[in-house]
């Protein structure tokens, strides 16, 4: 099982390295998986240990989706280049898997920083138990239960 997946489009790898450097101590305490090109840069620039899988376009995105669908991944940081269309079938499968399994998916720096901060600095890892955890079962869409909190 992996706690964190790290991947980025080529133009955003530098941003991801900056983010990893900022949260290096916390990230290093967790099991991390990264796509090849992104992971090699992160590893060489930060020294953190991580498992490398193929590049996203070579099946890495599908492998991350498989990890999510089998309950073996807790969160994904995929920094997307907003200048590019989000049309890669592997990325769409990854996003769909995160949505279906209720896995946090950060595709920009602000969201990535928020998720990492909560996960690492506020001991979110203690509370996050993945899909179907008691805390997630209590959540209901707005409008259900007459707008009252779930019991």
- The ordered string of helix (H) and strand (E) elements is EHHEHEHEHEHHH
Determine and state the CATH class: Alpha Beta
Number of domains: 1
Estimate the strand proportion: 15-25%
Distance between the terminal alpha carbons, to the nearest Å?
31 Å
Number of helices: 8
Q: Going by CATH, what is the homologous superfamily?
A: Methylglyoxal synthase-like domain
Biggest β-sheet strands, sense, barrel: 5 strands, parallel
Strand order of the largest sheet: 3-2-1-4-5
Structural class: alpha/beta
Mean pLDDT: 85
Q: Quick one: overall form?
A: globular
Low-confidence stretches: 133-147
Total beta-strand segments: 5
Q: What Rg do the Cα atoms give?
A: 16 Å
Name the descriptors.
151 residues, alpha/beta, Rossmann fold, 5-stranded parallel beta sheet, 8 helices, 15% strand, globular
Q: What would you say this structure looks like, in words?
A:
The structure is a single chain. The chain has a five-stranded parallel β-sheet, with helices on both faces. The chain has one domain (2-147): Methylglyoxal synthase-like domain (Rossmann fold, 3-Layer(aba) Sandwich). The protein has helices at residues 13-22, 24-28, 36-46, 60-69, 89-101, 109-121, 124-127, 134-137, and strands at 2-8, 32-35, 51-53, 73-79, 105-106. The chain is α/β, with parallel strands linked by helices. Helix content is 46%, strand content 15%. The chain has eight helices and five strands; from the N terminus they run βααβαβαβαβααα.
